[in-house]
Amino acid sequence: MGLLPETTLLTVCAAVTCLLTMVYIYFKKSFSYWKERKVPYIEPTFPFGNFRNLMFVRKPLGHMFADLYKKLDGEKYGGTYIFTKPGFIFRDPEIIKNVLVKDFSSFHDRGIFANEQLEPLTGHLFFLTGNRWRNLRVKLTPTFTSGKMKMMFQTLVDCGQELRTILHETASQEEIIEVKDILARYTTDIISSCAFGIQCHCLENPDAEFRQWGRKIFESTIKLSLIRSLSVLFPSVMSFLKFRVLDPKVSKYFRSMVQDTVNYREKNNVKRNDFMQLLIQIKNRGKVEEEHGYLEQNGHGDLENKSDENGLSMNSLAAQAFVFFAAGFETSSTTMTFCLYELSLHQDIQERLREEIDIVLKKHEGKITYEAIQEMEYLDKVVAETLRKYPPVQNLNRECTKAYKIPDTDIVLEKGILTVIPVFALHHDPKYYPDPERFDPERFSEEEKAKRQHYVYLPFGEGPRICIGMRFGLMQTKVGLVSLLSKYQFILSKKTPVPLVMDTKTIILSPVGGMWLQIKNRADYNTVI
Questions:
Q1: CATH fold of 92-414+421-521, please?
Q2: Nearest alpha carbon to residue 443 among 425, 460, 430, 461
Q3: Angle CA(62)–CA(63)–CA(68) in degrees, nearest 5?
Q4: For 94-120, how does the pLDDT look when each residue is reduced to its tens digit (9 = 90+)?
């Protein structure tokens, strides 16, 4: 192949130069968006804006936004650029309160990509928008009352007992174990039973089919990490290109399982005290049998306040069961993992917590009861501090659903602007939590909480879109911790680094290489339970 003629080469060079100049001008113009509006912003760099670390998967998402948060130090908010797309970060607790609660009608959607035609399992409460979200939220809220939690409580206790049992021999040998996977098997057993009515015995069998599919949901590959990030940053592009955020095989498995479970129960008139039974009620009657006429009244702005009486389609039912499983097993097991890590580092805190567990369980004849868990005040502080330091969901996304004027300013956010409340950054701000890397449960004493602004602690979100399964998640976390600490002691091993190194590819905050701790029987264990 010969060389191009000189005139042709010059023409190509001129065209490329012209194209690059146009691209540069376009980016330069786009990068002036916040400056023209006199909004404090973080200086972008070509071509990634402020999100180079995200595209190269260099840092966990929460850490990346913590860096942006620090660059806006002294400001109540600030503009960012996702490539050329303007974004917005809220820093001030009062403004965050407005966004999540008072002015919720302007921020009721998360702005996350979902395509129910392409992927039916994305039609769940976490992704849905507008009145579709509101109607479903009203239907599902009665499934998470304290009465319904008590109804499922024995399942948690039984799984906690099995967790203790499978670790007995390991503790007797004082072995070093990877606790993250074991705890994920514990929560998978709970959720599979409560959400799907299936006894999958993942604690007995680490390679159980249900556990394998659960692992696939949160696979940490660079490709999946980028796709999940793009689903938040560029939902329209994801929709146009028909990208899937979920493995089609995973989707087929869970939808088929739900279909079979519902068909079997309805055909054989089988009823169980679990989440699936409540979903079937909604499917057939349009609502759950409520306790004392309970209905959430939580200030939902100008969205309609009444649910329609239509039931759930089979796809919608499957989507709700799926998100309950996906959100429930990973976040709770991760929280327990980080909690045991901190307790291993701080044996004095571990011992104080164990003393409380012993005292309360003795009052309840050695049994883990719903009431016993509620009485454990120090346990509540320890879990709260774990969620502060290691929030599983590191940021809250909110799309500006209509033009919004920030109170006491001249700044108007245009409809469609993607905004972020950086939870991890707020939880590690020394202004609110002095010496934030120190693990101190007393930050959550009533006296300390009273001193602190409310909207700087957001592990479950807040306002109308607060995590609907918060109470269930806390309950299975606490039951798991009580089951273990009542019998075993956990000690740091050399296989787990201090400080921890976080995985950059996972959605949920997670340590690289798992969590390796030594487990042994309590020196003073006297069969409290």
A1: Cytochrome p450 (1.10.630)
A2: 430
A3: 95
A4: 999 999 999 999 999 998 877 788 888
